[in-house]
Amino acid sequence: MATITAALVKQLREATDAGMMECKKALVECDGDLKKAAEYLQIKGLAKAAKRGARKTSEGYIGMYRSDDGKGVALVEVSCETDFVARTDNFRNFCNTLARDIYDANPAADANLLDLEFGGEKLELKRGNLSASTGENIRIGRFVRLTADNGLVSTYRHHDGKGAVAVKVSCTKADTASKDAFKDFCAELVLHVYAINPLAVSKDEIDAAAVADQRNVCKQKAAESGKPEAMLDRIAEGMLNKWFADVALLNQMWQGDGKESVEVKLNQCAKAVDDKIKIDCFKRLVIGEGAVEEDAAEE
Predict the structure, then answer these.
(1) How far is CA 5 from CA 44, 114, 245, in A?
(2) Structural domain total, the chain
(3) Residues 99 and 194 in one domain
(4) Is there a single domain that holds both residue 43 and residue 131?
(5) Is the dihedral of CA 6, 12, 15, 18 positive or negative?
(6) Domain with 21 in it
(7) Are strands 163-170 and 278-286 parallel, antiparallel or unpaired?
(8) Across-strand partners of 121?
(9) Same structural domain for residues 167 and 137?
(10) Which of 129, 142, 198, 211 falls 20 to 30 Å from 43 in CA-CA distance?
(11) What tens digit of pLDDT does each residue of 29-67 get?
(12) Residue 123 half-sphere exposure, CB side, CA atoms within 13 Å?
């Protein structure tokens, strides 16, 4: 029987993030073999993680990576059970590292990340190890990767880390992306998108079914207004245009001053940099939005 020293237990703990008593037990079970003990903890950790799998994950952090030139971004949603874990360096480092891995690997938009290998190890195994070290159910959710050949991808992550936005703005001239007026516009635009949460860049890009539903609502409200029937279509269309102004980014009032639309601000920036610029797309991730309701289960 090998002697299990405090130094050996500490070494295993540093390698696995498992508890001291769990490390000591693993070393005893594996007769002091460090490698086998790490594998033992990994197996046990994944078994526990499977039991945690049904527990609700309403907290979390949006991992983010932005390339040094500002032309590429990756965001990933990682959920956990408590705010305590979501605020730890270990958890947040995992999220940000995963975002960088996603940026480098460039997986398909519909890829199941858990089946992919990053750094020679499946993400499912990495997720299981994190679950074992935190004692919580960990879920890998949505991810986004954006790149701009001409222009910038601007980012914002809220102070609590639970929400983030990436906005891609393109230009035609090579030097435009380095101009202060362009960079300032992009930086303010991403704050607007996070705060106001539009549905699409322009009204033409809003889902047709959503527009049809809203048009029906407007017609119903117009019919209930008591106005003459000849005016109802015009009233309904006015209501619909007001809705577009609320949900289409270009139609929204600029959140900075509320006096001009985003489209006006876009045109002002284009004039300042003497270039054609376009808001191509935006992606907004917030922990829990779009998540399937989970049933709580006791371990």
Answers:
(1) 22, 36, 68
(2) 2
(3) yes
(4) no
(5) negative
(6) 6-52
(7) antiparallel
(8) 118
(9) yes
(10) 142
(11) 888 888 888 777 766 664 455 544 455 668 999 999 999
(12) 23
136 and 114 co-located in one domain: yes
20-24, 116-120, 140-144, 221-225, range with greatest mean pLDDT: 140-144
Lookup: tokens for 6: 């405090």
Question: Which of 15, 32, 52 is the last residue before a domain boundary?
Answer: 52
Q: Are 6 and 34 in contact (CB under 8 A)?
A: no
One domain, residues 63 and 196:
yes
Residue type, 250: L
Question: Tokens for 234?
Answer: 């015009």
Q: How many residues does the chain have?
A: 299
Please tell me the distance from the alpha carbon of residue 277 to that of residue 259, in angstroms, as a whole number: 21
Burial of 298: CB neighbours in 10 Å, binned 0-12, 13-18, 19+? exposed
Gap between the Cα atoms of 58 and 153, Å rounded = 28
Residue 88 CA neighbour count, 13 Å, CB half: 14
One domain, residues 24 and 135: no
User: For the segment 121-149, what is each residue's pLDDT rounded down to a tens digit?
Assistant: 899 989 988 988 888 889 999 999 999 99
The CATH number assigned to the domain holding 93 equals 3.30.479.20
* Residues 102 and 142 reside in one and the same domain: yes
285 pairs with which residues across the strands?
164
SS3 of the chain:
CCCCCHHHHHHHHHHHCCCHHHHHHHHHHCCCCHHHHHHHHHHHHHHHHHHHCCCCCCEEEEEEEECCCCCEEEEEEEEECCHHHHCCHHHHHHHHHHHHHHHHHCCCCCCCHHHCEECCEEHHHHHHHHHHHHCCCCEEEEEEEEECCCEEEEEEECCCCCEEEEEEEECCCCCHHHCHHHHHHHHHHHHHHHHHCCCECCHHHCCHHHHHHHHHHHHHHHHCCCCCHHHHHHHHHHHHHHHHHHHEHHHCECCCCCCCEHHHHHHHHHHHHCCCCEEEEEEEEECCCCCCCCCCCCC
Q: Which residues contact 156 (CB under 8 A, 6 or more apart)?
A: 164, 165, 190, 191, 193, 194
Q: Cβ(54)–Cβ(294) under 8 Å? A: yes
